[in-house]
Amino acid sequence: MTNNSSTEKPEEWIITNEFAQVRLTIDTLGNDPRLKIEDLTTNLSIALDAFMLAGLTTASQEELKQHMDPNPKDHPRDTKG
User: Fold this and answer.
1) Is the dihedral of CA 39, 44, 47, 48 positive or negative?
2) In a domain, 24, yes or no
3) Per-residue model confidence (pLDDT) at position 79
4) Chain CA centroid to CA 59, Å
5) How many domains would you assign to the chain?
6) How confident is the model at residue 64 (pLDDT cuts 50, 70, 90)?
7) Which of 8, 37, 72, 74 has its CB surrounded by the most CB atoms within 10 Å?
């Protein structure tokens, strides 16, 4: 994978199904590249480094399902305080 200069638009991928629509990009602004995942419905995003992505491979389906509400009514990151 090559690093883009700051003037180039980063490569992106849009993945959709009947339940969700997300944009994937590689964030190279920090020390190490991270996978940025943006929920196009809620505009929430997360950036995962290689260590976090590797950890996802060891999670069970049940563990992952605990986090699979793409449109929660009260998202913890929405609270101001």
Assistant:
1) negative
2) yes
3) 56
4) 16
5) 1
6) confident
7) 37
Mean pLDDT calculated for residue range 35-57: 94
Does residue 77 lie within any of the structural domains?
no
* 43 occurs within a structural domain: yes
3: nearest Cα among 31, 24, 22: 31
The pLDDT of 38-66, averaged and rounded, is: 92
- Domain of 25 in residue numbering reads as 12-72
Closest to 6 measured CA to CA, from 23, 32, 29: 29
Q: Which residue has the tokens 């920090």?
A: 30
Among 38, 45, 9, smallest CA distance to 21 is for 38
Domain assignment present for 6: no
If we measure between CA atoms, which residue out of 32, 34, 54 comes closest to residue 24?
34
Give SS3 for 24.
strand
Q: How far apart are CA 39 and CA 44, in angstroms?
A: 5
CB 27 within 8 A of CB 47: yes
